[in-house]
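Q:
Got a chain?
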Amino acid sequence: MMPYQMAFWLCGILLVLAVAMYFSRKPLLVRYVPFPRELGTVLGLFGLWQVAGRLSVMKVNGALDRGEWLWDAERDVFLPSEHWVQHLFFPAHPAVVKFFNLYYASMHFTCMIIFLIWLFVRHREFYPRVRTTMAMATAFALAIQLIPVAPPRMIEKAHLTDTALYFHQSVYGPMNADSPDQLSAMPSVHVIWAVIVGYTVWRVSPSKWRWIGPAHTVMTITVVVATANHYWADGIVGVALLMLSAGIQALVRRAAAWIKGLRVASAEVPAPELARST
């Protein structure tokens, strides 16, 4: 996983590059300004996501208590057991679980970058709205993640296995080490981003390969639960934040359109003197 320091450095370099390209006034460079600007924005969000986990990394006791409460709350509302999902694959299918661990560690950020490049190049009319929704939902998630919540793999009563640690594939270190996002289970940014990718690809792509988007969504949800990195509730809250972000953006667009309509209508009304002369 890319360290947050590198993410911030690359973000700064790309944004400076975007500014330099813009002020160069060369048409070719100005045309491609959005590429470094948008990639830098995503890297910045990725770095902030890791920092949110690091800010709470030492508050282990409170995080464990909240994780246990979340586990009990899920049982109270009869959500499917994460334990049941994990045991569909572990320990009977170690190769599948190893693949899940690798998918969790590598595909979250990689798929989002590929998706945003594809959307920008092939379906640019949808890009601004999707990018803004993604950024807004991620920001909401980061704010909530400042309250530490231990993932289910740390909850003793859950009896779940930390599959990445079991197979020596963990991206995390000891609780007091320089490791990202250990106690930021709620909500799941993995699920937020995967749902954005799946829904958008299915909606905007005319290709027969558009099923890859929803497949990534289903795979991500399965992986984060089977590896005991997230509760069901993490994904549910993540999707709720995504819907909230899309709703806010829709309201803002409608308000802007309404204000614009009022201005146009006002400009079309003739002045009193002109009206009397006609």
Q: What stands out?
A: The two ends are 72 Å apart (CA to CA). The longest helix spans residues 232-268. The mean pLDDT is 86.
